[in-house]
Amino acid sequence: MAAVFGAYPLFDRAAAPVVLAVGDALDTSPDPAGSTGVAGGELPDGTATLDDDLPAITGLDPELREAVRQAAADAAADDIDFWITSGWRSPAFQEHLFDEAVRTKGLAEARRKVSTPEKSNHVSGKAVDIGPTEGDYWLIEHGTDYGLCQAYSNEIWHFELLTEPGGTCPPMLDGAAG
Ligand SMILES: [Zn+2]
Predict the structure, then answer these.
(1) 78 belongs to a structural domain
(2) Interval between CA 23 and ligand 1 midpoint (Å)
(3) SUPFAM superfamilies recorded for this chain (predicted)?
(4) Mean pLDDT computed over every residue of the chain
(5) Is residue 167 part of a domain?
């Protein structure tokens, strides 16, 4: 089931999933064809909430988005607020991030810290980066209630749906960045 971008209130639980109507795409729709910038998943202010109508958010897998939304609501009840620091990314944006890392850190370090477009689960909409740190710690402690798991041992902020709600997370991967 494809996500719809912009035509429906995305975070209204009552709204049934609907098929993406390509012709109806708004300016804020993700551009899988290869944009960088906001259309490619960049967050103009560095962070976003799940309610923002930005490609980084609307491009996420709806199941992941709902899990994070429920977790955020429960965290708020614990007086912990967290938000998305990176969500869906176009292949071009991911490539840009990788190229930037190569330029600033060198190839070996870049490979440890940034995935390629082929490997990154941000590109498939199945990964979110969460901040601030106290939000990361809350999710590390409580994320399995929602099926959310820290995927990489070197990234406390990167979460994916890797188990059933109440399940057990698989062992974290080392070094391979998301
Ligand atoms: Zn990540």
Answers:
(1) yes
(2) 30
(3) Hedgehog/DD-peptidase
(4) 83
(5) no
Range of the domain at 82: 22-161
CA of 122 to the centre of ligand 1 (A): 6
Report yes or no on 8 lying in a domain.
no
Ligand 1 center from residue 156 Cα (angstroms): 9
- Strand-pair partners of 128: 159
Q: What's the structural domain count of the chain?
A: 1
150 C-alpha to ligand 1 centroid (Å): 10
Contact 65, 130 (CB under 8 A): no
Ligand 1 centroid – CA 14 distance (Å): 29
CA of 158 to the centre of ligand 1 (A): 4
Coil, strand or helix: which one is 139?
A: helix
The CATH number assigned to the domain holding 52 equals 3.30.1380.10
96 CA distance to ligand 1 centroid (A)?
A: 15
pLDDT in tens, 11-27: 333 333 333 333 333 44
CA of 130 to the centre of ligand 1 (A): 8
Residue at 118 is within a domain: yes
pLDDT of residue 135: 97
Taking the C-alpha atoms of residue 20 and residue 80, their distance in angstroms, rounded to an integer, is: 34
Bridge partners of residue 130, in order along the sequence: 84
Indicate the pLDDT class of residue 126, thresholds 50, 70 and 90: very high
Residue 104 above 50 pLDDT? Answer: yes
